[in-house]
Structures are given as structure tokens and as C-alpha cells.
Amino acid sequence: MAVQGPFKVACEELFPHGLGVVGIVAELSDFDASTRENKVQSRDKDTGLPVWVVDVIDFDPEARERSFKVKISADTEPVMPPVVAGSPVRPVVLEGLTVTPYLKEMGTDRRTQQQRVKIAYSLRASGMAAPRQQRATDSKAA
């Protein structure tokens, strides 16, 4: 059986401790089509929608890699969730989240002269929203 991505996954399953936006939403440049004078925004190869990029941080205190970029395919620039008073990050839920595994080259091992690789993941979404607030009745039912 050939297993291929992207895999659809709920944000809450992938990030059970939550996720936060750091920085701004920006256009992802199409490096092949852009020139120094004329920047061209990348387009999703499947949908044709413009691609945006945002930096996020995983709230899991034991996460190996805590910050990474997420590509969002959307007609218009995604709106960031509201600021939470006293916090440098904005809690977020990624909508339409998919994960695509790939092999990332890590350089050459000096002892064996062999190429080192690791499994990495590319995250894409169709949008982002503020996390819904858990109601008191929800927490009592758990």
C-alpha cells in the first residue's frame, strides 16, 4: 500500500495543548516567478488560490520543535484572531488543516560521509480562527 499525503487532521488532535500565532500573515512569494523588482504571490497548485504564510508556536511544553510556518490557501488575507491581554501570542485554531510528510536533508555525517535525513512535516490550512471558549457545561461533562 502506498501511503501519500496530505493527510487531513483536526488542529485539536495535532496540537492538544493549543497553538499560537506569532508575527504577521504574509504573502508567500513565488520564487520562480518573482524578480527583484516584481514580487509574485505563490498560488496553491490544486486550488489556484493565493498562498499566505504565518509563523505559529506549539504550546506543548515537551514539543521538540516549537515554532514553524503554516501555509494558508485563501482568496483573501487570513484575519488573525484577537489579541489576548498580557500575551505576546494569539491563540489560534487552524481550519482545514493538512499534514504532508517529507524527507529533509540535514547535511552530511562527518564520520560516515553519508547524507543525514529526517522526516519533516509541511502544514497547510484553509483558514484560521480564535479557539472556541469551553463552556462550564462542557467541562462538567468531561
Choose one word for the global shape: globular
Q: How are the strands of the largest sheet arranged?
A: 1-7-8-4-3-2-5
Briefly note the structural class of the backbone: mainly beta
Largest sheet: 7 strands, mixed
The topology string of helices and strands comes to EHEEEEEEEEH
Share in helix: under 10%
Describe the protein.
The protein is mainly β. The chain has one domain. It has a 7-stranded mixed sheet with strand order 1-7-8-4-3-2-5, with no helix packed on it. A two-stranded antiparallel ribbon has the order 6-9. Strand 7 and strand 8 form a beta hairpin. It starts with 6 loop residues before the first strand and ends with a helix. The C terminus is likely disordered. This is Plasmid replication, integration and excision activator. It comes from Microlunatus phosphovorus (strain ATCC 700054 / DSM 10555 / JCM 9379 / NBRC 101784 / NCIMB 13414 / VKM Ac-1990 / NM-1).
